[in-house]
Write a structure and sequence with these properties.
The chain is of the alpha/beta class. Helix content is about 35%, strand content about 15%. It contains 13 helices and 18 strands. A nine-stranded mixed sheet has the order 1-9-8-5-4-2-3-16-17, sandwiched between helices. A four-stranded antiparallel sheet has the order 10-12-18-15. The longest helix has 18 residues. The structure holds pyridoxal-5'-phosphate. The site of pyridoxal-5'-phosphate has 14 residues, from helix 3.
Length: about 425
């Protein structure tokens, strides 16, 4: 590794940090001056109309975060599939739900809030997203499953259209977690518009941000209204506080909505900057035994939220990851994510491991994990003979997210590239 003479950046180069432009402040000020310092107001209404229009869906419901949006997606889907549960029960209680495996845990936490049992579907090498072939296999093994939660990784969609078709063929509903993929498209159609329900995020490190916040997206007016009602403590239409079901305090603040409203006009600019970053990495890392995060260039237009690389198998030095810590043995000509992350930290730049797959998380050690050949926990013959593998674990062990901040300068990125090159010397 050794960065030798490379000096650490004085100002940290982030993985992905908020980029403000000015109008955000105007809308915050408007909220303040009109005294709509609340979960009601013009900014919220605007965010809902812009978010729906951008995503190409009929309705958006502005919420405190994307996790809350996903929670209400699970409740809507669960009640549609299984009917209204008793007050103290979850909407998908005791039901199996197919979930993306290599993702942030917020994708499926709401499934667990509602009593569901996540069954993890392995990842495909071609897109790092849910493997449609593994999903087909999962329906073979569990034909009773009626709900699928699929995330689009790092703003690079896989064949989400095919995932939707598979769901339809099996009479299942699809929740699309487009938290990372706002503005990305598959065959010209916006991510966030494929699922029966979808969620997007305005978390501080996403492609645009409100500091926090998220939207639930749907084409059903009835579902949008139901989500809005749940999000505001489930008040019935009565002169007093009347309640027939459990409620949540999930509405977006009008101040936060001001930030989101001010950011939307810059979504395309952010995507262009992130794309330039991805392409500079692809150029700059040529000749090294690594590849950038993959996508189908004919069908997917990513938003390039995070650039990531994967090290060729033959170029991996020995790396051992335990539950909490890691060790590796540096070797000339080879490297590993741990070494690269250490080298980046050494120059005051932020990288990140690939999302550790859910089937490897201690809390889900008992949950089934389905690959192309069946339940890989049970170690199928194809798995044992090496014809199929645990793709998520493999990408996790060889992949790493690179600094992808849209304010990173070209010179800074060149230094990051140089440091990565040094790891392989
Ligand atoms: C960020 C993220 C979320 C959660 O978004 P919040 O707005 O922080 O709740 C969910 N899923 C994925 C894949 C994410 O990256």
């Amino acid at each position: 590794m050794y960065n030798g003479s490379i000096k650490p950046f004085e100002k940290k180069v982030w993985l992905s940090s908020p980029t403000m432009h000015g109008p955000e402040m105007e809308y915050i000020k408007e909220a303040y001056e009109t005294n709509w310092m609340s979960t009601v107001g013009a900014n919220i209404n605007e965010v809902e109309s812009i978010a729906a229009e951008k995503a190409g869906v009929k309705y958006a419901v502005a919420l405190s975060c994307c996790t809350a949006a996903l929670h209400l997606c699970v409740k809507l889907a669960g009640e549609k599939l299984y009917g209204k549960p008793p007050i103290s029960h979850g909407a998908v209680e005791g039901k199996r739900v197919f979930c993306s495996d290599m993702t942030f845990d917020a994708t499926l936490n709401p499934v667990v809030y509602e009593g569901g049992i996540p069954i993890f579907i392995d990842t495909e090498y071609d897109s790092w997203n849910m493997d449609p072939k593994a999903l087909e296999k999962a329906f073979e093994i569990y034909p009773d499953v009626k709900l699928v939660v699929c995330a689009e990784l790092y703003g690079f969609s896989g064949d989400i259209k095919q995932i939707k078709e598979i769901c339809e063929r099996h009479g299942a509903l699809l929740i699309e977690d487009a938290a990372e993929a706002m503005g990305a498209t598959w065959e010209g159609q916006q991510c966030g518009s494929f699922g029966d329900y979808a969620a997007i995020s305005y978390n501080g490190n996403k492609i645009i941000t409100g500091s926090s916040g998220g939207c639930l997206l749907t084409n059903s007016l009835e579902d949008a209204n139901q989500a809005r009602k749940w999000a505001t403590q489930s008040r019935e239409d009565a002169p007093w506080y009347q309640h027939e079901e459990v409620g949540y305090n999930y509405r977006m603040s009008n101040v936060i909505a001001g930030v989101v409203r001010g950011q939307y006009p810059y979504l395309e600019e952010h995507i262009a900057q992130k794309k330039a970053i991805y392409e500079r990495y692809r150029e700059g890392l040529k000749g090294l035994p690594v590849k950038m995060n993959p996508f189908d260039e004919t069908k997917c237009k990513p938003n390039y939220w995070l650039s990531a690389l994967i090290i060729d198998e033959e170029a991996m030095c020995k790396q051992v990851r335990g539950e909490q810590d890691v060790a590796y043995i540096p070797e000339p000509g080879k490297s590993c994510p741990s070494e690269i992350l250490e080298a980046l930290a050494g120059i005051n730049a932020e990288g990140r491991p690939i999302w550790k797959p859910m089937h490897l998380q201690p809390m889900y050690r008992m949950n089934p994990f389905i690959g192309r050949t069946g339940n890989l926990r049970a170690k199928t013959n194809a798995y044992i003979s090496g014809k199929t593998r645990d793709v998520g674990m493999d990408i996790f062990s060889r992949g790493v997210c690179l600094p992808s901040d849209n304010k990173m300068t070209e010179e800074e990125q060149n230094i990051v590239i140089e440091v990565i090159k040094n790891c392989f010397r």
